[in-house]
Amino acid sequence: MSISAISNQSIYRSYQSLSSGKRINSAADDAAGLAIAEKLKSQTNSYDVGTRNAGMSQDMINVADGALSSITDNLQRIRELSVQASNDLYTAADKGAIQAEIDQLKQSISDTASQTSFNTMNLLDGSRDSFHVAAGPNIDGLTVNMPNSTLDALGIADYDVTGNFDLSAIDKALETVTSARAGLGATSNRLDSVMAYNANASYNLTASQSRIEDLDYPGAVSEQKKNELLRTFNLMMQRKKLENENGRVLKFFTT
């Protein structure tokens, strides 16, 4: 390969690197560096996806917690009505009216448990007891446990204050729901930590990838100018050589 060809190739690669901002634009530029950079890129992308998965799972937890908060409010009201109904100053008709409100509250709990969903998947009706969150780069992660908040699961399907009733049933239901909310809250906090770690890992992996394949602009511009100067010098030398050869030929025919 001629010196001219080498110079043209170097200038082409310089322009290619300057336009792309990358030191490595093909495997020929740095085969080993390209392989390492692609592995780092794969890890970075996986951490980023894991962060999105964790954030999406937090959204699901927030939906479930909001529904459980509503169930808690209903249970608290049922407990208040139960204490009221336990007073002997109320007649059977009064207790019947109280039970009518309790039935509406129970129906609200039932509707919340059956209709609360995320991405078309029910969360609180017992159809799914857990969800795997692929929050790590290798599909590893953690499990979000989901409570069953139906009336049967809470043990209050047949709760009725018009006869003999056990107030502890409502207390147990409240404890169950409160414990479930605490578990979801703890999982959400754990997901915060996971996302923070993923963001830090992604940042550092991206920095390493950048050191391998990104272009050093000052150095690249300097190299480009050098190659252009060498090319210009080469063209001048070829021209001078051609002029000398033409001069010798002309002198030969004129003598």
Strand order across the biggest sheet?
1-2
Output the radius of gyration.
37 Å
Outline the biggest β-sheet.
2 strands, antiparallel
Q: Give the beta-strand count.
A: 4
Shape estimate: rod-shaped
Number of helices: 6
Mean pLDDT figure: 84
- Strand-residue fraction? under 5%
CA(first)-CA(last) distance: 38 Å
Question: Which ranges are low-confidence, i.e. pLDDT below 50, for 5 or more consecutive residues?
Answer: none
Fraction of residues in helix: over 70%
The string of secondary-structure elements, in order, is HHHEEEEHHH
**Secondary-structure-derived class:** mainly alpha
Overview of this structure, please?
The protein is 73% helix and 5% strand. It has six helices and four strands; from the N terminus they run αααββββααα. It has helices at 3-20, 31-85, 92-115, 151-154, 168-213, 217-254, and strands at 117-118, 121-122, 130-133, 142-145. The chain has a two-stranded antiparallel ribbon with strand order 1-2. It has a two-stranded antiparallel ribbon with strand order 3-4. The relative contact order is 0.16. The mean pLDDT is 84.
Defining key terms:
255 residues; mainly alpha; two-stranded antiparallel sheet; 4 strands; 73% helix
List the helices and strands and how they pair.
Elements: H1 3-20, H2 31-85, H3 92-115, E1 117-118, E2 121-122, E3 130-133, E4 142-145, H4 151-154, H5 168-213, H6 217-254
Antiparallel strand pairs: 1-2, 3-4
